[in-house]
């Protein structure tokens, strides 16, 4: 039953923390057919609750990452005690600015069946051993977009590693809700957007990505720092604490002034932020200095600003809509074999905490999955690396993904319009349910397509019993289409919009 699939993922945490190769008591006597895990993950609550959920869902990715980390240490003759000692500056900083991260990590570790101190040391030390690549972030000034849309995108280029996209809602006071992309083994951010309408990315430094460019924004030179906090956790700190570009810049300046930032031999980060007012802010920083610049030109690219993708946006002869902006992210000039994830963000200036929408591509060349800020749940395949593993070997023509995304986007716009009309001061639980149900329905269909890209997308409309979650889906479909929910045709737990005939359902 669909209802069973929506049991909260935290229930699964009861089996976390088992040693490698062990099984829960009585597992041997269970029926060979186990119930499927929930299709959604709810990262909500206390740091310990969020950590336990993450560690349970991403147990495999965490254990794989830990083994690689330990193997690297053994190859360099570095003891585990030394790894833990080298992580102390990171932990000291975290205790000052975000102590809930430590509580979260100490809950992740037993749920994943790994040592907590060694896991914390990996969070501090492992980024220096990841192969750095040249990511690409871009934005378009809202005076050049259709309906003054506020848009942000990043393609993340890095070593092949399971990617996670997620929505996180912490119970810790004054911590913003946010959506982000990270490695499945850690809860940090490569790119993010929060409920205040601030989107941001942390990229390879401009002194390396824009060599010999006289217009590159560069901070004054500084010696490298090897112990401290890397940009993935600093971006999470910004996601949790800042509400606009000015506050993001203040956080970076404060972190650098206090000597918290560590960039190793790379010694720098190139940041891009876009906020609900449409401000586009570029920041370059290193261990001692920060330089910043607000951009008002039509198109800004963090690098490759003469690429075919950048030229296509710059030469657009009409206002740039979502599809034009998003589609260039798959252009071969900026989307490479190393582009392990992508995120396009539509910031809703009126209701950023509800109707801001992130479109996650894992990897960047694959089909994008939309997730609303106002929801509470993330499709499981986005969180646990399954979507990345399914998508990274595909060679599907990008025009097919674009066509599917056009259908999803049209449905999203209809739902957003209906939700906006009924929003008051605070989003209600009913609105969150509508957004979650729509997100899950689209993800179900699209994940099936990614796993079997050659199958037809036409579905026959076979109704299922009413009640429970199914009734909520019917309500959501009614809100989205504007039709009487009781009279809508339904397609295997998904929506059929615009009064389509049962034999010609889109499946969204």
Helix content: 25-40%
Number of domains: 3
Global morphology: globular
Poorly predicted segments: 1-31, 458-508
Number of strands: 18
CATH class of the largest domain: Alpha Beta
Overall pLDDT metric: 84
Kindly report the spatial arrangement of strands forming the biggest sheet.
Answer: 2-5-6-7-8-9-10-11
Largest sheet: 8 strands, mixed
CATH topology of the largest domain: Penicillin V Acylase, Chain A
**Strand fraction:** 15-25%
Query: Which structural class matches the secondary elements?
Result: alpha+beta
Architecture (CATH level 2) name of the largest domain = 4-Layer Sandwich
Instruction: Give me the number of helical elements.
Output: 17
- Terminus-to-terminus distance: 19 Å
| Rg, Cα atoms, Å | 22 Å
Name of the CATH superfamily of the largest domain? Penicillin V Acylase, Chain A
Short description:
The protein has 508 residues and is α+β, with helices and mostly antiparallel strands. It has helices at 47-57, 59-75, 80-86, 88-97, 99-112, 116-125, 206-209, 231-241, 245-257, 308-314, 322-327, 352-355, 380-383, 386-391, 398-422, 429-451, 468-481; strands at 40-41, 43-45, 136-140, 150-157, 163-170, 178-183, 191-194, 199-203, 269-274, 280-285, 290-295, 299-301, 339-347, 357-361, 368-372, 378-379, 490-491, 494-495. It has 3 domains: 3-19 and 35-129, no CATH class; 136-449, 4-Layer Sandwich (Penicillin V Acylase, Chain A); 458-504, no CATH class.
Report on the architecture of this protein:
The chain has 508 residues and is of the alpha+beta class. It has three domains: 3-19 and 35-129, no CATH class; 136-449, Penicillin V Acylase, Chain A, CATH 3.60.60.10; 458-504, no CATH class. 37% of the residues lie in helices and 17% in strands. The protein is built from 17 helices and 18 strands. It has helices at 47-57, 59-75, 80-86, 88-97, 99-112, 116-125, 206-209, 231-241, 245-257, 308-314, 322-327, 352-355, 380-383, 386-391, 398-422, 429-451, 468-481, and strands at residues 40-41, 43-45, 136-140, 150-157, 163-170, 178-183, 191-194, 199-203, 269-274, 280-285, 290-295, 299-301, 339-347, 357-361, 368-372, 378-379, 490-491, 494-495. The strands form four sheets. It has an eight-stranded mixed sheet, covered by helices on one side. Strand 17 (490-491) and strand 18 form a beta hairpin. Helix 4 crosses helix 5 and helix 5 packs across helix 6 (116-125). The longest helix has 25 residues, at 398-422.
């Amino acid at each position: 039953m669909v209802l069973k699939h929506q049991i909260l993922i935290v229930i699964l945490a009861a089996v976390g923390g088992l040693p490698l190769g062990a099984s829960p008591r009585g597992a041997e006597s269970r029926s060979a057919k186990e119930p499927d895990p929930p299709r959604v993950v709810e990262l909500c609550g206390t740091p310990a609750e969020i950590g336990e959920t993450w560690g349970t869902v991403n147990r495999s990715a965490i254990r794989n990452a830990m083994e690689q980390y330990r193997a690297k240490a053994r190859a360099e003759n570095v003891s585990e005690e030394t790894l833990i000692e080298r992580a102390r500056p990171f932990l000291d900083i975290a205790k000052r600015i975000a102590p809930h991260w430590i509580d979260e990590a100490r809950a992740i570790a037993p749920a994943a069946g790994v040592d907590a101190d060694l896991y914390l040391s990996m969070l501090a030390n492992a980024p220096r051993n990841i192969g750095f690549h040249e990511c690409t972030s871009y934005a378009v000034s809202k005076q050049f977009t259709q309906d003054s849309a506020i848009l942000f995108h990043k393609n993340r280029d890095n070593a092949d590693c399971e990617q996670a996209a997620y929505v996180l809602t912490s119970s810790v006071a004054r911590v913003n809700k946010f959506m982000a992309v990270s490695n499945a083994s850690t809860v940090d951010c490569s790119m993010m957007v929060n409920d205040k309408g601030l989107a941001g990315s942390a990229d390879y430094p401009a002194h390396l990505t824009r060599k010999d460019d006289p217009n590159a924004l560069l901070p004054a030179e500084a010696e490298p720092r090897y112990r401290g906090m890397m940009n993935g956790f600093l971006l999470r700190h910004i996601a949790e604490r800042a509400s606009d570009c000015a506050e993001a810049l203040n956080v970076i300046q404060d972190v650098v002034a206090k000597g918290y930032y560590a960039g190793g031999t790379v010694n720098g980060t190139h940041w891009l932020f876009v906020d609900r007012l449409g401000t586009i802010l570029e920041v370059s920083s290193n261990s001692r200095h920060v330089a910043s610049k607000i951009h008002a030109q039509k198109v800004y690219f963090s690098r490759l600003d003469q690429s075919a993708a950048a030229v296509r946006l710059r030469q657009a002869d009409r206002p740039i809509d979502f599809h034009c902006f998003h589609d260039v992210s798959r252009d071969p000039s900026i989307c490479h074999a190393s582009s392990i994830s992508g995120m396009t963000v539509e910031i809703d200036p009126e209701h950023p905490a509800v109707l801001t929408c992130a479109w996650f591509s894992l990897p960047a060349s694959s089909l994008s999955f939309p997730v609303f800020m106002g929801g509470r749940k993330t499709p499981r395949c986005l969180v646990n690396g399954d979507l990345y593993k399914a998508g990274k070997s595909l060679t599907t023509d990008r025009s097919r993904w674009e066509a599917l995304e056009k259908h999803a986007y049209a449905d999203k716009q209809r739902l957003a319009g209906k939700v906006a009309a009924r929003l008051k001061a605070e989003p209600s639980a009913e609105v969150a349910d509508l957004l979650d149900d729509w997100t899950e329905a689209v993800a179900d269909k699209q994940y099936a397509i990614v796993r079997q890209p050659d199958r037809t997308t036409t579905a026959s409309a076979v109704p299922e019993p009413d009640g429970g979650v199914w009734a909520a889906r019917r309500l959501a479909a009614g809100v989205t289409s504007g039709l009487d929910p009781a009279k809508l045709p339904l397609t295997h737990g998904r929506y059929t919009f615009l009064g389509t005939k049962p034999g010609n359902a889109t499946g969204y």
